[in-house]
Amino acid sequence: MINVVLFLILLFLCVGFYTVQRKLPLQTAEAGAITGVNKQNCASKRFSYRHDFVINGKPINPSKHIMLVVEGNCMSQRKIENGDIIFVRKFDKSFTKNQIKPDDILLIWHDSEQYKGYKIRVLDNDKSENNNELNTFYYKEDGNKHLSCHNINNIKGVVKYKLQKK
Amino acid sequence: MIDTIIHRNTWSGRAAYSFLWVSFVLFFVYASIVSSIFMKDKSFTEEYLKLQSNIPAMFVNFGVMFMLVIDNLWNRYTENRYFLLLVVFSMFIIMALYGHAQAYFDNSRNYISLIKKSWISYLLQGLFVLILLISKYKTIEIIKDDLEEV
Fold this sequence. Notes:
Order of helices and strands of chain B: HHHHHHE
Radius of gyration of chain B: 19 Å
Number of strands of chain A: 12
Structural class of chain B: mainly alpha
Oligomer: heterodimer
Shape of chain A: elongated
Order of helices and strands of chain A: HEEEEEEEEEEEE
Largest sheet of chain B: none
Shape of chain B: flat
């Protein structure tokens, strides 16, 4: 009888292991000043691998994209609001850093004493004097641009899509 | 290709897909066992009943479970997923090793019996297949989320 119980326990453990779906972890991307920004309960915004993300009826390849939750309102002019889920196209053989163009929204890895994590910034039209750096900006509350330079090695991808709100 | 024939987001499509999938998995796993019986050159009925009510029954279930996991991974990774075939081949090697171990125990009359009553075994395996079917039906649905360009 113990063997039967053991068998049943193993059986349910196995099925449970399969049915409980792993979740896609979501990191945040800072968009401008985040002090006073309503945290959008990022932990609850998780998706299982059963989700297909489609653009114009065609699914995108999730392995080529990074999913992030936006924190901050500096991209409101580009219709990216606080709490939006964005899809960033990672650089690879078919999509290189040479293909980025002005007005693209870039994902930048920032590692300093003040802030460590991802940021999103718009690529400026003006080229930097230093070839290894790119001029970027974000929109301040008054609509003006806040300029900053970022090393090209810290650019991780280009924001391509955002999840439609239901 | 099957995705184009059966719509996985309708209940009938999902049920049909799950049924086909479970049938295939069961056929595949049982075919492996039956072929191993023939390899031993013994009475088919006697060996089959023995296999049904002993460790291999559990092994079959784990085999099915293993295939479920592989299937899940296969759907998840769209690139470089052929490495998963290596895992499947490893499973066959493990099965072969297991077969050798089983033959050793058979010959030394130390057959380890986990479930002695065969009807309990049938009942449990029937239950397992049912749970398998339901879990596949539940997990097969693809939730589509629309994106917009920025």
